[in-house]
Amino acid sequence: MRRVNGLATTLSRAIATGAPPAAAQRRLVQAGLFSTFSSSNNSQGFAQSIADRFKKASPSVAGGVAGFSAAATSLAQEAHAKEPVQSQKFLPNDVVLYQYEACPFCNKVKAFLDYYNIPYKVVEVNPINKKEIKWSDYKKVPILTVDGDQMVDSSDIVDKLFQKIHPDNSATDSEEERKWRGWVDNHLVHILSPNIYRSPSEALESFDYITTHGNFSFTERLVAKYAGAAAMYFVSKKLKKRHNITDERASLYEAAETWVDALKGRQYLGGSKPNLADLAVFGVLRPIRYLKSGKDMVEHTRIGEWYSRMETSVGEPCRIKE
Question: pTM higher than 0.70, yes or no?
Answer without folding.
Answer: yes
